[in-house]
Amino acid sequence: MFSPKAALRHELLAARQAAAAPTGPGLLATAREQAEVVAAGRIALYVSMGVEPQTGPLIDWLLASGREVLLPVLYADNDLGWGIAPGAADLVPGRLGLSEPPVDLGADAITTAELVICPALAVDLNGVRLGRGGGSYDRALARVSPGTPVWAIVRDAEIVESLPADPHDRPVHAALTPTRLVRLARGN
Predict the structure, then answer these.
(1) Cα dihedral 92, 98, 103, 108 in deg (nearest 10)
(2) Does a structural domain hold residue 188?
(3) Nearest to 119 by CA among 155, 88, 94, 87
């Protein structure tokens, strides 16, 4: 029997499989309009996989515009280290099929980000983020410097009224979608 979170993850992943519309150009256009993105010199982001909203165009634009992009390095204990993105062609294979930067700056490198953009399957209007269940991002988000904005990338339909939350879950301040940035109640 699935837990409430596991059942939600299953439903959300099935819905993502069915909604295969491209998301990369929309995410890039939405992000480019945001003051936090324009002002940030170092942004923590991630390389999308499979049916996740596509981050490639956003990463390419950030690098081309002279910003540093921190990308995660997945450790054996599912914690995350961070390395500076060298460019898509220079990423190396990581655990679980992830693409990672070749140099790991350590788990605390996320404290140097001026904006953190993380993956999610859904977020609710209070900033609760539902991830894939490994706890990697909750651990990483616990290290983010106070006052640093934290956003989750989702599709528009993945912003929901409420989600179940556990004490270790870290809230996000906004949801970045292919059409808009939604500021969430708990984060503001």
Answers:
(1) 180
(2) no
(3) 155
Instruction: For residue range 112-153, list pLDDT tens digits in order.
Output: 999 999 999 999 999 999 987 778 999 999 999 999 999 999
Helix, strand, coil % (nearest 5) of the chain? 30, 20, 45
Gap between the Cα atoms of 139 and 118, Å rounded: 12
d(CA 25, CA 94): 26
CB 33, CB 67: distance < 8 Å:
no
d(CA 45, CA 115): 9
Angle between helices 56-64 and 24-32 (to 10 degrees): 40
Q: Which residues constitute the domain of residue 20?
A: 4-183
pTM of the model: 0.88
Domain count, the chain: 1
Residue 126 lies in a domain: yes
Is residue 83 in some structural domain? yes
Distance CA 157, CA 4 (A): 19
